[in-house]
């Protein structure tokens, strides 16, 4: 197996590998159809790696290094140079073989070479990913909950049809006023666990943000 820089010709295999890796994970809804890109107004540089075996991509890792202005204003850990862990995926047939750690080892050396002060990692529930981030020395700085469901106090509405104007019509059942839209179901970010009780819940994912600090390069 070898680790090298991502190249444009890798895009199709990159997408397949990420999709298969995420399919049965807490990130099942992140189904990219093309390679994620980094906005040059936000990131000053990137680390985009792939793990290749017998000519096939079996793993990938993306990290973006924020510009100085954004790094200094970064919510979780302001610093001179902050990096954001964007993607990490290993093909299901090649998991539990240390590929993710090898990708991260290469990326971390590049972070060191660029003088990065801190790496921000965002993830959801999942023993494998959280185990790795802790193993790699990252510290939890924040947790929240991603709730898929409907607020219990959502106003009642009447669902109707305006035949004259050939459109749907939504009306507040109490005020009788027409509504411009209605929320049937959605995804909400909840910062305190006890507030999950405000929803008729379909699914809840615990989200975790990690920070790994690095000594400034002298």
Automatic annotation (TrEMBL):
Span of the signal peptide: none
InterPro entries: Acyl_CoA_acyltransferase, GNAT_dom
Domain N-acetyltransferase: 1-164
PROSITE patterns: GNAT (PS51186)
Gene Ontology MF term list: acyltransferase activity, transferring groups other than amino-acyl groups
Top-level lineage group: Bacteria
Keyword Transferase: yes
Transferase is among the record's keywords: yes
Name of one Pfam family that matches: Acetyltransf_1
Keyword vocabulary terms for this entry: Transferase
Protein name per the record: Acetyltransferase (GNAT) family protein
